[in-house]
Design a protein that fits this description.
It is a single chain. By secondary structure, this protein is of the alpha+beta class. It has 2 helices and 6 strands. It comes from Turicibacter sanguinis. This is DUF3168 domain-containing protein.
Length: 123
């Protein structure tokens, strides 16, 4: 498995352990709420042995009350913030810099939160 696919698999698992289905780039058509969609982009850092990946997680829920999505968002943040991982085939991953924001949707029954963070991994 490629390093990128390995990191995607790890990140998907971290989100799903928090109690919602996670998808990379786009959710399935008939997905049940709540769910999360994440994407990332890699950035080369001047140090050849170190790479940075910026992650954006969009969390969606369909309800009139925002308390469920707030709890889920906070749970995901708690699960990933300052996480240090030593997965097989990748020397180390460090998640940091977690930021959260509320994004309104035109459909008032949809609630959306967004989390941004960075992953540093070392070769």
């Amino acid at each position: 498995m490629s390093r990128t696919l390995k990191i995607r698999t790890i990140f998907k698992s971290l989100i799903e352990e928090c109690g919602c289905k996670a998808y990379y780039e786009r959710a399935n058509k008939n997905v049940l709420y709540p769910y999360a969609v994440f994407e990332f982009e890699s950035t080369d850092i001047t140090d050849i042995s170190k790479r940075e990946i910026e992650i954006i997680i969009d969390i969606w829920d369909k309800t009139d009350d925002s308390s469920n999505i707030e709890v889920l968002t906070d749970t995901i943040i708690h699960a990933i913030n300052h996480k240090f991982l030593l997965p097989e085939d990748i020397p180390s991953l460090r998640i940091y810099g977690v930021r959260k924001r509320s994004l309104p949707d035109e459909d008032s029954t949809l609630k959306r939160r967004q989390i941004e963070c960075s992953i540093i991994y070392f070769d």
